[in-house]
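hiii so my PI (J.) wants the whole complex modelled not just the main chain, which honestly fair. so below is everything: two entries, each one labled with what it is. i double checked the lines twice but i was tired so who knows lol
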Amino acid sequence: MRKRIMPEKRSKKTILVDYLARVEGEAAIRVALAGHEAESVELRIWEPPRFFEGFLVGRSYQEVPDIVARICGICPVSHMSTAIRAIEKAMGVQPSPQVLLLRRLLAMSQLVSSHVVHLYALVLPDHEGYPGLPAMLEKYPQVVERLNRMRVPLNDLTKLVGGGRALHPIGTVVGGFTRIPTRQELRAARDAVAGIRQDAIETLKMVAEFDTFHFGTDREFVSIRNEDHFAVNSGEIVSNRGLKASEDDYYKYFSEYQMPYANTKQTRRNQTEPIMVGALARLNLKFDQLVPEAKECAQKVGFSVPDCNPFHNNLAQAIEIVHGIEDCIKIVESLDLKDEKPLVRVRAGEGGAITEAPRGLLHHWYAVNRRGVVEKANIVTPTAHNFMCIEKDLRGVCERIAEQPMKEIRRWCEILVRAYDPCFSCSVH
Amino acid sequence: MRKPRVGIFKYSCCAGCQFQIIYFIKHLKEVLGAVNIVYGKMETESDSADGPFDIALIEGAITEAEQADQLKRVRRNSKYLIPIGSCAVNGGIPAIKNMTTELEVETRVYQDISLMHSIKAHAIDEYVRADAVLRGCPVGERDLYELVTSLMLDKRPNMVEHCVCVECKMKGNQCILLTENVPCMGPVTNGGCGALCPSNARACYSCWGPMANANSSALARKFEEMGLPPDEVVRRFSLFGYPTFEFHKVAGAGR
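here's the output for the full assembly
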């Protein structure tokens, strides 16, 4: 190839994706490159804010789960259960062990189905060279069929436990569930979920073939951990750099900053440092708690911890799918259901809770008065936690492949952001 | 037969209705195979938002002036424009903020509000004409199929236009409002959900939005007789869409 003569020593170019497709919500990527150096990196989350924390003030505690479910169309269950737990802490409500187990089942079923749809509908087209899943229908009908086969039993399980529907379920309330499923219903749902084990392994094989390159520096992974199971609903905040704290001390370690170019506030650790949350963070911190089947699968595809490559977040999700299916089956088998109604005594107080949404750490905090009306609310979403880390990795990717054609740099920037499984709608809430 | 060209647009919402289309419907393959999604950022990469479209599906409420500008362009370039989901149909959850001043709501969330361009949350038909509406939060499967098949057969869709009570009766549920004294919004809420909440031992919370000609003041009076404080009553009538024509007598007309 003929060497091009550069007018300047350092060539300047701008990588711009003004409306990123196949992610939830609206955001743009802008990276200004000068030679091999990124001068500025901006993840411009331009989705208009909806001010949930603003209008939750003055609403009753009973409405809060239903309102916050509408923050996100993929992980409504996470928002509901985080809000419910925060309010229960504020009002001193102690749900029964059965409710806690059902909530774990609910969270797990949603986590797995969220990963499935993310990997198939949002990520897969990148690696097959298609603009989107609808275009793949003709050539890869079996892939769309597998997506369908997997999501139906998972959605049905979420629907059964959460009540009424899988998206914005209606039976999940402060104190417990309005209706406890019957044993027969749960068993039928379990058998249906057990029927997709093989599909989960096929999914993992498919994801292991995705394009990736060796990338990623050491970073702080944060997740919650509970000593007796792979925690999704409650636990201590832990990190690979020695953080170990109660969820009540959240604000001691993390703080939010408003950015001039984004409607999402950036969450930082110790005021300056990025953190990474999500499937990869969970596996890095809790690999020992995976079910043996998932560990075995991980070994087969060559995944081992510690793994700092953000592109491998997809792989981590696929491993979590295998784990989640087994976990759901186990929880159903350990349940001995009895009918009970949620019991709530309204009381003034403040409380915060942290859970693992499919895309990472989710924090809700509420202050309610003695009539159960919200006086203050704060919500920090997984994408707000990842915000700074995504920008840091965008910088890293661009600098690494700076000499490649623009199209290629753009493609990798998009793949990177999608790998994080961001939810911009959540993050601006 | 030429596949209808579909554009899907998202404004301020949770994107759940779009997800309902690619994710929650049982006949995903058939629906995706029957239409040609030419614009829909969450489904596919595409260049032009300018159409032309046979069908434009709009989810979300309008909360910025720019969105309204784009919406008007979409209207010009589309044969049918259909708001999907409660946010688009009557403002939905984002419209709760209309109960207080914009300044107040914004300062509760952001330190520097000079960077905000938000306006009051409005339904789609405040700005453009809508040819039909798909209610629900998220949109109902039954109505979604009805819409897709109607558009393909070129017939008028037959949407659910009765209150939740009708569906409750059809299911044979006992009325929880009368027998258990639970403040159920079923009598004034548009059906289509299949009376989900009352069937799951819970009061309807009006997520499908108000039904046309609903007698909201009578139900509000009933709630007050049941011992609900006035602010509780107002909250129930302002959860999905505020202000609405049907509920304004109870919940007020906004600021």
